[in-house]
Each structure stands twice: as C-alpha cells, then as structure tokens.
Amino acid sequence: MDYTELINMTRDYQLGDIPSNEKALIYRIINSDASTYRIASSKFRFRQQNPQERNDYLVLKRLIELRYVEENQEQRKIFGGSITYRFTTHGLLYIFANKLIYPPQLLLNYSSDSVLKTLVFPYFETKTISQGTARFYEAITEYLNECAKILTNQNFLLKSELERHDRRENSLDYELEELIKVLSLKLAVMYSESNLLTISSALVENDSARVSLYELESSMKGLIASDRKFMHFLEKTKGEFDEIR
Question: pTM of the full predicted structure?
C-alpha cells in the first residue's frame, strides 16, 4: 500500500485543545444519519439564531479553523438553501487518535476519505465492516487509534530528519504497514475455532447466552472468511512470516 498521499495530507495536522462544547458538536455530527451537520444558510445571520444555534455556529467556526470539518459543496447543490458540513481527514484523525466513541456507520459514511480509503477498505469489504460484531469492531477501533497516533505525531518525531523526506516517509510507511499485518493475524487468531469456544465460555456463564455468543462470533468468522480482500492480505502476510521463519 502506498501511504504517501495520506502522509502528505496529515503532515500539517493541528492538535487542537477541544473543550466539552466543541466535543459535544463533534459527537452530534458523528451520530447523525450521514455523519454530517446541516444548517439552513439563513441561520448564519446572528439575529435569526436561537442560543443553541448561536453556540453551534461559534463551535463550527472553531472546528473549521482547526480544519476538522469543512463544507460539503456537493451537498449544498443538492439541498439548495442549506449548508452541509462533514469531517475532513484531520477531523477523522482527531476522532480515531482520541478514541471517541463512534458507530461503524461513520467508517461507511467516510469510506472515500483518504484515511479510510488507505487504512481500512483496501483490506476489508464493505459488508464485513457494516456487519462486524463488537469484538471485531473493537479490533478495528484499536488499529485505527494506533494508525492515527502515528500520523498525528509525525510532526513531533524525527526532527533531525526533516530534510530527509524519503527516509521519514518510508519509516511511517513501515509502521503503518506493520499495524495492518498485526491486525490481520490478530483477527485470524481471534476467529480460530478454539478461541471462539474459549471466549464464549469465559465471557458468559448462562448456557443459552453462551451458545448465542458462539453463534454470533461463528457467523462473523464466516463473514471474514468470505471477505476476499481480507483473506488475500492474510495469506500474503502469513507467507511473509513463513519466509522469515
């Protein structure tokens, strides 16, 4: 995977100090139907705003300054009198790096963004992400958190190598590629038959609930096994490890 575009896009990431009122709006955007924020263009006139709208407007301006959200020009054409805002690549990095709680739908809504287009969807089909269980999703969330920390910290690392861009990018490439390899092997182990039995027995005492959990995770195992993107990458990763041994 070529990470050059993503690395270049996130090199000037701004680490903002986000107070609770700004974080509250971020969560509202995350949990909206399309993970966007829509406001009537008339509401940008202060005299037509109620206190909540005025606060949202000020918070929105701050998030725009941080380049965490931006206006969606295509949506503006569709909805005419309203303006729609969506997360930028930097906004998604903030969410992932800070482990904000978000539904799988966020990943699907932003599947074309450079972050997810580079880190997730080359390795997983949409169906796998949309139907993932809590255990599967926890692994994905942890992976994105580690990737985001690498990308958002790149401005504070390797200061002595600022003039050696190729070396710097190669180092980041290597770290990101290792993370997806670790994730693929982790999922392979998680969804082995023996682990499914152990996990279902350890997490649930009630027999019927244990069976339900086992069936749920077995179904997830089947979903992963049918994911051609994931299985292709897993086989490639296993082959690399076999060569090393």
Answer: 0.84
Q: What is the DSSP string of 79-97?
A: HTTEEEEEE-HHHHHHHHH
Nearest to 140 by CA among 131, 129, 149, 130: 129
45-55 mean pLDDT: 66
What 3-state DSSP class applies to 40?
Answer: strand
Do you know the residue count of the chain?
245
C-alpha distances in Å from residue 58, one per residue of 75, 159, 244: 22, 35, 55
**Residue 145 tokens, joined:** 């958190």
CB contact set of 216 (below 8 Å; sequence gap of 6+): 133
Q: Distance (Å, rounded) from C-alpha 38 to C-alpha 86?
A: 9
Q: Which two tokens stand for residue 95?
A: 């969410």
90-112 pLDDT, tens digit each: 999 999 999 999 999 999 999 99
